[in-house]
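User: fructokinase. Structure?
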Amino acid sequence: MATVDIAEAKSSAQNCGCRVELLENSDGVKEGIFKANGKNRDCCKGIYEDFDRATDLNNGSTQVKKSDLIVSFGEMLIDFIPTVSGVSLAVAPAFKKAPGGAPANVAVGIARLGGHSAFIGKVGDDEFGHMLAGILRENDVYDKGILFDSHARTALAFVTLRSDGEREFLFYRNPSADMLLTEAEIDKDLIQQARIFHFGSISLISEPCRSAHLAALKMAKEAGALLSYDPNLRLPLWPSPDESRKGIFSIWDKADLIKVSEDEVTFLTGGGDHEKDEVVMSLMHPGLKLLLVTVGEKGCRYYTKDFRGRVNGFAVNTVDTTGAGDAYVGAFLTELVKDMSLLEDEKRLRKALIFANGAAAITTTEKGAIPALPDRAAVMSLLNKARAS
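Assistant: Predicted structure:
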């Protein structure tokens, strides 16, 4: 990408309604993003070509270049969150709807932080589905890969909030539109543009989505993308715990980067002590570049073939942990896509993980996943306050 005179670009863009926004990266460096008002961007073509993302302000669509595109594959749904914490679903007096679904959360989290993301998945051709598609567009997520199904509804999840912000889920999705994505419907061109391809395990539960998922993985790998995997264990959605473990491990050795929680470590190792490094290391496979373990408010642990360690979290007033792991993943991938070599440099890796922990912490301070995902300014503010204290 060319060096851009931001002041000159901003001045030129303002003449026709286009604009340039400045975002601060984790190193405190200002980066520019160009947003176009003209559908063809002809008015500011020269400026646009010096930037790696352009958003059409007329219709909300976003076009990206391959250099740092992160494509997220999987489900998008509606979370219904109790207006009162610490009560069961039966006792909750009312619920607030919020967009969610781990892969979609990651895509929005990346875009909120100034990264370039796209989403591939299917929702119902209903009001909820069109609302979710609109939310992707509003957040500058490239939505060319989202499809609508007229034969199944958008998935719903009712979330129980315990007094400590932890959750339990009740799903309505059998079948739901996300389960019906087929291999023929996958946007192959979009996958081939990805620098990083991110996915979970829920799309592995049933056909035809399982075959679509496996085909998408193959396409991404052949195109040279780094494969990022967050299993996002949801036992109620699987036929049995054994089927869940088998399904999650069925693509384990294809991933270059894996993120799991402490509870998932225990589950996947058959009851192993997640505090023990040797237990976590048993989940490594020969081609894995990085294994991340999130430990809630305590931060995270990281493991590579050359080094391992722990990065502390941030103390915040936790209201709802929904989406915290997705915020963490999105923030880390946003930093990683800028410089893949940080996987081999522990100092720079730790810096990116501090940024990811900050994004996750902020997300827990508000109810819902996507509504709570922070922008870069919020994360940098938290990090700066922590440095000053």
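The first helix runs from residue 6 to 14. Residues 37-41, 48-66 have pLDDT under 50 and may be disordered.
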